[in-house]
């Protein structure tokens, strides 16, 4: 799927394209990210948080955007995930982050999503969460998960 | 409890994973909203759901969920069964409704993977 990877001893960077509208594809990137992080020996809780964050991001891109990209950076102290898309953008971010607020179509709801939980889940499973959006251009999410914290049960 | 006993309690049909019925399970989560499953279910639990599309399998895979029980007699489309076989996740189908399935399993010792949610769940 045109993924680009650069790996060194303490740094790993991967980019994965995500096509808008393709519901069959949603979840593939999170599966790959999970495999990469597990392979690097990253703590299970951190892997799970990263996988959940990526999966919800994929669902958002597939549901609303024309095209997107998910980037994974692994550093010694943290895992960083960025989800960028070209799409309609979000006019009111405060509203979009509110639990239960959604503009989802029936198709999205049939998939078991679209209940206004996605951005909430992404924020809750991140240690640091940034969101910015330009209406008519797209949305950019950046999530950081601290590896140290995740090691505490 | 073994997955085999879950199958017996729920009078369930095994759609995928007939070779994995000796797996041990202790907890379960039930929902049709995958975002809630992602937020609150834990790895190793059973997932009871009435949703049958392939996203159920992807969600289960993301969380390392042990097995999926489709309630209310739901039969999934072939692509869901294919995804489950690929990911090696057992799928069972019971005609009991979600409430009844949960009650029957709870009675025999299966507990919720999360018993009560925090106002804002940040950590696992």
Question: Which protein chains are joined by the largest interface, and how many residues does each one contribute?
Answer: A-B, 27 and 27 residues
Distance between the termini of chain A: 35 Å
Order of strands across the main sheet of chain B? 1-5-4-3-2-6
What amount of the residues of chain A lies in strands?
Answer: 25-35%
Looking at CATH, the homologous superfamily of chain A is Histidine kinase-like ATPase, C-terminal domain
Strand count of chain A: 6
Q: Which structural class should the secondary elements of chain B be placed in?
A: alpha/beta
Q: Oligomerization state of this entry?
A: heterodimer
Strand count, sense and barrel status of the largest sheet of chain B are:
6 strands, mixed
Question: SS-based structural class of chain A?
Answer: alpha+beta
Question: Stretches of chain B where pLDDT falls below 50 for ≥5 residues?
Answer: none
Give your account of this protein's structure.
The complex is a heterodimer of chains A (153) and B (124). Chain A starts with a strand and ends with a helix. Chain A has helices at residues 28-39, 44-64, 93-97, 106-110, 118-124, 147-150, and strands spanning 4-7, 12-19, 67-74, 78-86, 128-134, 138-146. Chain A has a 6-stranded antiparallel β-sheet with strand order 1-2-3-4-6-5. With 153 residues, chain A is an alpha+beta fold. In chain A, a hairpin with a 3-residue loop joins strand 3 (67-74) and strand 4 (78-86). Chain A has a single domain (4-150), classed as Histidine kinase-like ATPase, C-terminal domain (Heat Shock Protein 90), CATH 3.30.565.10. Chain A is globular. Chain B has a single domain, classed as Udp-n-acetylmuramoylalanyl-d-glutamate--2,6- Diaminopimelate Ligase, Chain: A, domain 1. Chain B has helices at 3-9, 34-40, 54-63, 78-87, 98-107; strands at 13-16, 27-30, 46-49, 67-70, 91-93, 111-112. A 6-stranded mixed β-sheet of chain B has the order 1-5-4-3-2-6, with helices on both faces. In chain B, helix 3 (54-63) runs parallel beside helix 4.
């Amino acid at each position: 799927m045109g993924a680009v990877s650069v790996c060194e001893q303490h740094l790993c960077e991967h980019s994965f394209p995500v096509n808008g509208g393709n519901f069959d594809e949603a979840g593939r990137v999170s599966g790959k990210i999970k495999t990469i992080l597990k392979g690097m020996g990253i703590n299970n809780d951190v892997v799970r948080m990263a996988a959940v964050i990526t999966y919800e991001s994929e669902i958002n891109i597939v549901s609303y955007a024309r095209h997107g990209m998910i980037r994974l950076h692994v550093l010694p102290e943290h895992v960083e995930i960025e989800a960028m898309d070209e799409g309609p953008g979000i006019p009111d971010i405060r509203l979009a982050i509110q639990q239960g607020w959604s503009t989802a179509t029936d198709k999205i709801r049939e998939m078991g999503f679209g209940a206004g939980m996605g951005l909430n889940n992404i924020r809750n499973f991140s240690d640091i969460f940034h969101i910015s959006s330009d209406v008519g251009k797209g949305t950019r999410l950046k999530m950081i998960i601290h590896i140290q914290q995740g090691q505490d049960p | 409890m073994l997955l085999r006993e879950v199958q017996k309690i729920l009078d369930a049909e095994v759609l995928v994973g007939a070779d994995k019925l000796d797996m041990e399970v202790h907890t379960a989560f039930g929902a049709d909203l995958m975002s809630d499953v992602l937020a609150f279910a834990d790895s190793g639990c059973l997932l009871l759901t009435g949703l049958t599309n392939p996203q159920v399998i992807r969600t289960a895979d993301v969380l390392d969920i042990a097995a999926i029980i489709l309630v209310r007699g739901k039969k999934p489309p072939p692509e869901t069964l294919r995804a489950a076989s690929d990911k090696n996740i057992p799928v069972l189908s019971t005609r009991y409704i979600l409430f009844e399935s949960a009650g029957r399993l709870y009675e025999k010792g299966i507990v919720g993977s999360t018993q009560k949610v925090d106002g804002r769940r940040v950590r696992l």
